Amino acid sequence: MTRIADIILPEGYRPSPDEEYMCPMQRAFFRKLLMEWRKQLQGEAERTVTGMNEEKAVFADPTDRATLETDRNFELRTRDRERKLISKIDRTVEAIEADDYGFCEGCGVEIGLRRLEARPVTNLCIDCKTKEEQMEKVHRSPDEAESD
Questions:
Q1: DSSP for 61-93, written as a single string
Q2: Contact at 8 Å (CB) between 15 and 117?
Q3: Is 144 helix (H, G, I), strand (E, B) or coil?
Q4: CB 3.0 to 4.6 Å from 28: which of 7, 8, 106, 145, for a disulfide?
Q5: Which has the closest alpha carbon to 104: 86, 114, 116?
Q6: Residue 72 confidence (pLDDT)
Q7: pLDDT of 48
């Protein structure tokens, strides 16, 4: 049996509704998409680390120093979110390789090619995701609601 990672996609290939849903070609397409995304995120993280290590600025003005610290904190929060996204990408690639990708974890229906192209790490169909978001909204604490 051919491994999904070994499938070579034709130039310009895009999944089509005319194909069998989550056939090996489609799974290879999404795996490739995810691996490219992962590589991009890792590159950004490496650039951030390199930039922070090389940046040895000394500021006479405390406001400039505070601005730098605020920017660094924002950058680190962004990288932390991306680290979590990389973990989700890894789990999604495992699901692709296990032939367990493209179906809603909530109700089991096909998630849909266009939704997966837009958000390849999604594991819920649009209906289940909408319900989840509505439940989160209902169960939010008053403090969280005020921050909106």
A1: SHHHHHHHHHHHHHHHHHHHHHHHHHHHHHHHH
A2: yes
A3: helix
A4: 7
A5: 116
A6: 81
A7: 77
Which pair of tokens denotes residue 146? 């005020």
Query: Whose structure tokens read 């209906």?
Result: 127
86 token code pair: 């990389």
Crossing angle, helix 24-54 and helix 62-97, to 10 degrees? 160
Tell me the pLDDT tens digit for each residue of 49-107.
777 766 666 677 788 778 878 888 888 888 889 899 999 999 999 999 999 999 999 99
Question: Using CA atoms, how far apart are residues 132 and 123, in angstroms rounded to an integer?
Answer: 12
| CB 125, CB 111: distance < 8 Å | yes
- 110 by DSSP, 3-state: which? strand
Residue 147: its pLDDT value, please?
46
- Tell me how far apart the alpha carbons of residues 25 and 56 are, in angstroms, rounded to a whole number: 48
d(CA 103, CA 77): 31
What is the tens place of the pLDDT at every residue in 106-120?
A: 999 999 999 999 999
Confirm if 102 and 125 have CB atoms less than 8 A apart.
no
